[in-house]
Amino acid sequence: MKRYTSFVALVVLVVAGALAYAGDAEKSARWSGWITDENCGAKNANADGKACALKCAKNGAKLVLYVEGDKKLVGLDDQEEAMKHVGVPVTVTGTLQDGVIKVQKIEERKG
């Protein structure tokens, strides 16, 4: 009986750990940077690149986030919201799935 109880306790701990890990994968994160177009990338990740990024987006390029700290481009699932924030520094809150941020909100950074 003692073996059975130990086994059940171990299974419960493993399942609880797996559920906790799965829950962490869905937690929101925040990234800071500039919204730019996928064609020009970092080149348009500034206020001066706004017109070019918007033109490229109008011509079919996807808008992406240029993450300042990592110096990399990350996709954004909400192109309509991203369009409102081209040309200003932003903080994007969401979850990262398959290289694309599932956007919860985009906020302009002050200062």
Polypeptide structure, described:
The protein has 111 residues and is α+β, with helices and mostly antiparallel strands. 34% of the residues lie in helices and 33% in strands. It contains three helices and five strands. It has helices at 2-25, 50-58, 79-83, and strands at 29-37, 63-67, 72-76, 89-97, 100-108. The chain has a five-stranded mixed barrel with strand order 1-2-3-5-4. β4 and β5 (100-108) form a beta hairpin. The chain is elongated, with a radius of gyration of 20 Å. The mean pLDDT is 86.
Secondary structure blueprint with pairings:
Elements: H1 2-25, E1 29-37, H2 50-58, E2 63-67, E3 72-76, H3 79-83, E4 89-97, E5 100-108
Over all CA atoms, what is the radius of gyration?
A: 20 Å
Termini separation (Å)? 65 Å
N to C succession of SSEs: HEHEEHEE
Question: Count of DSSP helices?
Answer: 3
| Unreliable residue stretches | none
Named CATH topology: OB fold (Dihydrolipoamide Acetyltransferase, E2P)
Structural class call reads: alpha+beta
Query: Roughly what percent helix?
Result: 25-40%
For the record, the CATH class is Mainly Beta
Oligomer: single chain
In the CATH hierarchy, the architecture is: Beta Barrel
A few lines on this structure:
The protein has 111 residues and is of the alpha+beta class.
